């Protein structure tokens, strides 16, 4: 436990960014069994310090592709954390799961999470996989990424809609016509859809030169 306490002390000194916390998680997981790592991560998540809960979240992300219990903890428990910094790490943890598991193989879970009733779960997908078309599978199938994201254009959460709009904007840099054609189908008389449209169409409506 002495080494664990040193890692905790180290991450608690982090005031900006996440790389130090991420590297601490990598150090922790190396050489430890999955069961031990999961047990400690669950305990760390009870900490009052957001840095320690972020450490736990990174650890769970490392385990998730091989541990349904870790993936469930991320979805059911971490998503309810009220610190936005922990939610940023949740997005990274979900992307790590998809990377380790394979993005195409992760489609059922991606669809499950992106349809979840908890806004932070939905956003962990939309934000975690940015830039979507820079990820394997979605690089070759950008239309699938657009389809998944577009279903949240009228999301009740402005937090989620912002992530969706920005993600579609990212994709439009390389797939302008694909995004343009999708946006033409949207009902922008709906205020929430219009907000997402404004973000997604930033480069579409920008005049060349």
UniProtKB/TrEMBL annotation:
Gene3D superfamilies: 1.10.1240.70, ARM repeat domains (1.25.40.290). This is DNA alkylation repair enzyme. It comes from the Bacteria.
């Amino acid at each position: 436990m002495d080494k664990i306490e040193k890692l905790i002390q180290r991450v608690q000194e982090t005031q900006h960014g996440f790389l130090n916390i991420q590297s601490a998680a990598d150090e922790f997981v190396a050489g430890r069994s999955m069961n031990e790592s999961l047990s400690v991560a669950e305990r760390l998540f009870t900490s009052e310090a957001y840095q320690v809960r972020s450490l736990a979240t990174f650890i769970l992300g490392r385990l998730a592709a091989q541990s349904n219990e870790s993936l469930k903890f991320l979805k059911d428990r971490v998503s309810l954390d009220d610190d936005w910094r922990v939610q940023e790490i949740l997005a990274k943890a979900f992307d790590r799961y998809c990377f380790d598991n394979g993005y195409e193989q992760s489609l059922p879970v991606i669809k499950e999470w992106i349809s979840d009733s908890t806004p932070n779960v939905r956003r962990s997908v939309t934000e975690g996989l940015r830039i979507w078309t820079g990820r394997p599978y979605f690089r070759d199938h950008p239309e699938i990424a657009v389809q998944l994201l577009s279903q949240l254009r009228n999301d009740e959460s402005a937090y989620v809609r912002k992530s969706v709009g920005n993600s579609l904007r990212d994709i439009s840099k390389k797939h302008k016509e694909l995004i343009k054609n999708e946006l033409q189908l949207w009902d922008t008389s709906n205020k929430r859809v219009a907000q997402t449209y404004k973000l997604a169409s930033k480069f579409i409506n920008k005049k060349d030169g």
